[in-house]
Design a protein that fits this description.
By secondary structure, this protein is α+β, with helices and mostly antiparallel strands. The chain has a single domain (about 50-240), classed as Transposase IS200-like (Alpha-Beta Plaits). It is built from six helices and seven strands; from the N terminus they run E-E-H-E-H-E-E-H-E-H-H-H-E. It has a five-stranded mixed beta sheet, sandwiched between helices. Strands 1-2 form a two-stranded antiparallel sheet. Helix 2 (about 80-100) runs antiparallel to helix 3 (about 125-140). The chain starts with a strand and ends in a 7-residue tail after the last strand. The relative contact order is 0.18.
């Protein structure tokens, strides 16, 4: 593990207070070690803070949201690679449309976990509704019928330790369910990005992404508002509940 360095703690994002913390810089040459450390409770620093070196992120986002929603009747409607690939592509489009940042995610056969910020445009409930509707439009069976359960579960994440806990929970989920032997074997999550910085279908807001932007002299690019998707009637906007039941 690399030597510790001190970086600013992101204000008004996770804990709404100023300060500093020490984190360890991952060793790029030891990916196998990092895979185990990222899911090990004693290696919390392997998930570094999401806004490094003063690069302004998460505009007007005062916390992260751990979102969970499930397929209708908990049926495995996302059981195929094609369906999970489509969900990832739709999530990435929604990220650009509404201007939220994705800190982590996992797509399971019958449910989804997201760790995201408040959108810069529109309400979070509207962004989740549009995401679900667009996925359902593509994957719903020809005979119709609901694709998702109506509600989603939303848990506010203010503290760094809770952010790490939720990321670890998501990335362990496929292993816990017996779908794969190791987190890196499941393609439909943000785990591989945290291990190596590999770019997948969904842009993950992380140290890797921020460093790349800094090297290129770029700032986050969001699709212009006139390219936003069709609005959803307020009567169909989803309701949220409290802490998601950790159902795996």
């Amino acid at each position: 593990m690399g030597k510790g360095i001190r970086v600013p703690r992101p204000c008004h994002v996770l804990c709404d207070r100023a300060g500093t913390l020490t984190l360890a810089v991952p060793n790029p040459g030891n990916s196998q070690s990092k895979c185990s450390q990222i899911t090990d409770t004693q290696f919390a620093s392997e998930y570094p803070p999401p806004m490094p070196w003063g690069l302004k992120r998460f505009q007007q986002a005062y916390c992260l949201h751990f979102i969970t929603f499930s397929c209708f009747n908990r049926e495995p409607l996302l059981a195929t690679p094609r369906s999970r690939d489509l969900f990832e592509r739709t999530l990435e489009r929604a990220r650009g449309w509404y201007g939220f940042y994705v800190n982590g995610y996992v797509v399971m056969p019958e449910h989804v976990h997201l760790l995201i910020t408040e959108p810069e445009r529109g309400r979070l409930s509207l962004a989740i509704q549009m995401l679900k509707q667009n996925v359902a439009r593509e994957l719903r069976a020809p005979e119709g019928g609901p694709f998702w359960l109506e509600r989603y579960y939303d848990f506010n994440v203010w503290m760094e330790r809770k952010r790490i806990e939720k990321l670890r929970y998501m990335h362990r989920n496929p292993v816990k369910r017996g779908l794969v032997a190791r987190p890196e074997d499941w393609s439909w999550s943000s785990f591989r990005h945290y291990v190596s910085g590999v770019e997948g279908a969904v842009e993950i807001e992380s140290q890797w992404t921020a460093r790349k932007r800094e090297r290129l002299g770029l700032m986050p690019q969001i699709v212009r508002q006139d390219q936003s998707p069709r609005p959803v009637s307020a009567k169909y906007v989803e309701t949220r509940t409290g802490h998601p039941r950790e159902r795996g």
